[in-house]
């Protein structure tokens, strides 16, 4: 029997309360929601790797207590990359692992993802990517020709991103104890003076900007995995974003936070920022750019585009007075030509993300519990 508390939430739960026009709170029972409870399990589940609530639970309740320093402090702030002081310089440091299935999909491969995903984690703290390590975990019996294709794709992506591959490792596991090829990468980058992009800096009044159309990566991988065909080919958006971030920085605006909505999609990213900064986030659904074929695929398959992984899109929280300047810089860059303002950061309902629907209603965008599409990156 589960120990999950299944009692209904009281109307004072911030998820159930909407602020009135005069700032007062008004509880409307028709708009109450009950978040899905977390899985009560003694074993690792696929959802623990989905970038949603189960992933957060695993990190916060298992890893962080184990990794705390002697004085009880959390090792570093939880962000896409850690920013550390080293010999008078600010160094960004990140690591990531890639277990996507299949290895090759429309628009990319596990090799492209390994480079671009790591480069983008560095870029989200404003770093100029410098070098990467790469480690391959291979299953006995894997076709060497396929491994060569992955390695070639990884090397090509690194050269295109302007980063060096400087060290690595290879391990082989018994046949039947892996899934062909897994890749782990670690990245280092240099953070310029004065740059401070982190979720905790998002504040009321900030404009929420997304750099392009969402959902393409997840739908591309799913279509290849399940043999689905759509009227128009959907290709992954995997790409390095540090050039776009640099262009945004040169615009001179006050950028508070950057995140790339990978696992868990836009829903997870906005919820994480809202939680870390203790703010509310209001977005307008009709302003969020979604390609027609992606929207159609999500509608047919019953998927929420908010929760679909992306690999070439970023979310920015920018001071309102600087939003137009930053948007102009994004539109002038090939990786940001579809950038759009999609909402605002508010002081109301801290930790809650709400979306204004096309019909004028409002719904809460919850942190996904697990993952709609496992093994997506």
UniProtKB/TrEMBL annotation:
Basic and acidic residues bias (residue ranges): 1-16
Pfam families, per database record: AIRS, AIRS_C
Family designation: Belongs to the HypE family.
Cited PANTHER family: CARBAMOYL DEHYDRATASE HYPE, HYDROGENASE ISOENZYMES FORMATION PROTEIN HYPE
Region Disordered: start-end pairs: 1-30
Protein name from the UniProt record: Carbamoyl phosphate phosphatase, hydrogenase 3 maturation protein
Record domain PurM-like N-terminal: where: 80-191
CDD domains, alphabetized: HypE
GO biological process: protein maturation
PurM-like C-terminal domain residues: 203-349
